[in-house]
Amino acid sequence: MSTSSVHVEGADPARRWYRVGRFLRHNSLGLFFLFTFLLALAGQAVAGHADFNNQLVSDGMAPISFGAYLTTSDFAADVTENWQSEYLQFFLYIFGTVWLLQRGSPESKELGKAGTESDEDQMVGEHATDASPRWAAARDWRAVVYSRSLGLVMGVIFLLSWLTQSITGVAAYNEQQLRGLQAPLSWAGYLSSADFWSRTLQNWQSELLAVASMAILAIYLRQRGSPESKPVGASHSATGAEG
Q1: What is the pLDDT of residues 144-188, one digit of tens each?
Q2: φ, ψ of residue 232 in degrees (nearest 5)
């Protein structure tokens, strides 16, 4: 009895570590990017705090603490202006790749599959399987919403990030205006200002260039083992193939 108890107690930690290891392996891609995101955000906060205090000192004002900086509109505006451009990229990419094609790119669907494809191809309605999400088998508004849910959520996050950027951006801009003894702008006025569109478009253009570069360079270049690349030996004209 005691021997069996010792064996079970000794096996439980091993099973737990096995489950932890399996969870980490099965979710390593998402966990890696979440971890590096937090590292980059922390680095941005540290560097931004130093730069913000340098500006305060140059304006003859006292520096602020790191905690106080994290609550400033400057920090929020810097963070959200990057978020909105990233989610705009994914929103446009998700909906664009439904209809737009790029011959030879693994980032494109096959040349004959432009469009939303058939219910059979997409396993919706009567073509749904037992393992399919419940809303995929529906024949009402739920199927319409769920079949576009990824792009819609990306679009909503983009709009919320853009709205947050505009609100925090006008607060940060007006703070600079008041330091220079100049009149502040309204939110609507800030939306038409050069500062807002300069900050916005410099992020948009970099994201759109990155997507275009990936779609085109992947025609001719390879990364062995990556689903973002064609197989190393695939022809340059192979479209929609993944390695």
Answers
A1: 999 999 999 999 999 999 999 999 999 988 988 887 788 888 999
A2: -55, -35
